Amino acid sequence: QARSHFIPEALQAAKLRKMVRAGKLREPDVAPLMGRLGSWVDCLAGKYSQMAESSSGKKKEAAALISLAEGHMGSEDLAEATKAAKDAVAMFKEVGDKAATADAERMYVHALCCGGKGAEALEMAKEAMEGYKSSGAKLAQGKLLLSMAEAGLEGDVESAVASATEALSIFRSEGDKTMVAAAQVLTSTLCLKKKGEAKKKADE
Predict the structure, then answer these.
(1) Residue 97 and which of 2, 65, 121, 193 are 20 to 30 A apart at CA?
(2) Distances in Å between the alpha carbon of 147 and those of 10, 194, 203?
(3) Dihedral angle sign, alpha carbons of residues 136, 70, 45, 31
(4) The pLDDT of residue 16
(5) HSE on the CB side for 156, CA within 13 Å?
């Protein structure tokens, strides 16, 4: 398996490797496109494969689409990954599963970002996050904040850091260790990019 080249080795790689060995995370089959933090750290494929086996109707179909989308991301088929994730979002909304909808939205945002559609991804993530914030769905809110941070990797790094930091706070308060790790990795990546940009400006 190829290792994820986006992980800041000195900051979080050891922690993630430990979680991989413990079965809490899994390494992707290929390095994520554009060096982005993919939804693989959410352990979506395994989680939703189990849901597909134990569910029926639209929920079963939507769960299968999440696993399918992640598989397409692994084979770098962005068009199919984006379509599968978008369809999963619509289906989970239809059955009223907010937690699953948030996971599907994270996959959709990731696919859009990897396809160079960061602005569209950011707008979608913001809208979804505000909806979860209004309804008090804290974990879903945190997940979309993290997606906002990912979408901001190529743009406003300051805002992206703020979103990732807020997401990390939510995950800690909710006791979600997997998402805490995901937020820590992305925050570290953003901070390193921020320092790099500052150094570049200073050298100009």
Answers:
(1) 121
(2) 23, 18, 31
(3) negative
(4) 43
(5) 9
